[in-house]
Amino acid sequence: MPEFIVTPWEVSGEIDYDQIIKEFGIEPIDQKLLIEMKQITKEIHPFLTRKIFFAHRDFKWILDEYKEGNPFYLYTGRGPSGSVHLGHVMPWLFTKWLQDKFNVELWFQLTDDEKFLFNQSLSYEEAYNYSYDNALDIIALGFDPKKTFIFSDIDLAGILYQNALKIAKKITFSTIKATFGLDNSSNIGQIFYTSIQTVPAILKSLIDEKNVPCLIPHAVDQDPHFRLSRDVLPKLGYYKPASIQCIFLPSLQQGGKMSASIENTAIFTKDTPKEVKRKVNNAFTGGQPSAKLQRELGGNPSVCSVFKYHFMLFTLDDEEIKKIESRCRSGSLLCGECKNNLTQKINAFLKTHQEEREKAKDRIDEFLIKEKLDLKEIVQEKLKKL
Ligand code: TRP
After folding, report:
1. Whose CA is nearest to atom 7 of ligand 1?
2. Distance between the two ends of the chain, CA-based, in angstroms?
3. Residue 1 has pLDDT above 70, yes or no
4. Is residue 372 over pLDDT 90?
5. Strand arrangement, sheet containing 106-110
6. DSSP strands (E only) in 43-138
7. Higher pLDDT, 374 or 324
8. 194 CB near ligand 1 (under 6 Å)
9. Radius of gyration over alpha carbons of the chain, in Å?
């Protein structure tokens, strides 16, 4: 049994990211690359210095092209199988930062088709409706509507299909089996699906009628898709898409990642302050069994999920996080205080997010693009002409 699994459809166990770098053949983000990036962005996001965004493919090429006046666009996505939680928000915050710093377009794919095909208990309508629900969370983060295009695969099916065909013809079933572990019992939509996830990596090239570099910020589990994209797209005359890849926000319980399917492990963007408090209070920590022991022996932040939430999302100031860590280790910071601190920060974030999410309901048309697919209308139009 492997100790961990990381595929686009399953993430579990204690993940060894160094091993992933080797197995996937991705590049670690090193100091040299960060210095080069800083020349353009002027500052470095803590997600980079903290190795939360830890690996890439061809990011240096993206920077080189940018410096030579050939800017890239961003492409990322979300599989809308349920409500959004903080683990999803994390890479989107970084994507927003990239959009602001480089002043570039973002194409955001909502893969309702994927979630319908891969999740036996999710109906077509549910998956499609979650696209719209989840789009509100994306809009709430403050992306620039002039530079941001959000689409559901179902809504953009025609354009996606036209291009997915050309991609699909260059991928064999045996490659799909080897890359994704699919087998003869998989439904045929699952086998085809990856060709749909490749298309947004060329959408801007299609519009501009010339090749435009594409940078994909994503969690490392999506790398197998884009490995295939990088194989196929040059055969069709396009650039290979580049990527910048992050680790997973861990579960609030022991081990694993934040998971929408195991309720207490995750904090959802729709959670109330009370729910957040309860979940954080029940979180797995690196604390001692009693306050007395904690004062004597100190806690262990390196195994503590509360500390990881501070480190990965809510205490991005370096001095402040060092203080939390040293106070924890020395025993002067008890888990109760540290949890309260985190609860307050999460609730402050969610308060603003929920307000913006409400406002997004009236702004959804500023962001979403879709094709007109009303068959009745099409037929009537045809008949009118006769
Ligand atoms: N397949 C992804 C998921 O299940 C969604 C997705 C589509 C995506 N395109 C992407 C994620 C590009 C990151 C980057 O969540």
Report:
1. 77
2. 66
3. no
4. no
5. 27-28, 53-57, 242-246, 214-219, 73-78, 106-110, 148-152
6. 53-57, 73-78, 106-110
7. 324
8. no
9. 22
Pocket of ligand 1 contains residue 78 by CB under 6 Å = yes
308: CA distance to ligand 1 center in Å? 24
Q: Which helix (H) or strand (E) holds 139?
A: helix 124-140
Whether residue 16 contacts residue 4, with contact meaning beta carbons closer than 8 Å, is answered with yes
**Cα–Cα distance measured from residue 280 to residue 11, given in angstroms and rounded to the nearest whole number:** 22
What amino acid is encoded at 354 in this protein? Q
**239 CB-near residues (< 8 Å, 6+ apart):** 205, 211, 212, 213, 214, 233
- Reported as a single tens digit per residue, the pLDDT across 4-19 is 999 999 998 889 999 9
- Pocket of ligand 1 contains residue 218 by CB under 6 Å: yes
Contact at 8 Å (CB) between 126 and 343?
no
pLDDT band at 26 (very low <50, low <70, confident <90, very high): very high
Which of 260, 278, 275, 269 has the alpha carbon at shortest distance from 351?
269
| Mutate which of 11, 130, 223, 225 for ligand 1 pocket (most atoms within 8 A of beta carbon) | 225
* Closest among 108, 152, 107 to 128, alpha carbons compared: 152
Q: Are 272 and 86 in contact (CB under 8 A)?
A: no
Q: Which residue has the tokens 């898709």?
A: 225
- Cα of 288 vs centre of ligand 1, distance in Å, is 39
Cα separation, 302 vs 325, whole angstroms: 9
Mean of the per-residue pLDDT values of the chain? 96
Residue 167 in contact with residue 299, Cβ under 8 Å? no
CA of 223 to the centre of ligand 1 (A): 10
Phi, psi of 73 (to 5 degrees): -125, 160
Does ligand 1 come within 6 angstroms of the Cβ of 79?
A: yes
- 330 alpha carbon to ligand 1 midpoint, in Å? 41
Tokens of residue 384, six digits:
């009118």
Digit-coded pLDDT (tens) for 206-243: 999 999 999 999 999 999 999 999 999 999 999 999 99
Q: In the block, which residue shows the tokens 């204690």?
A: 14
- Ligand 1 contact, 109 CB (< 6 A): yes
Instruction: Give kind and range of the element (H or E) at residue 294.
Output: helix 291-297
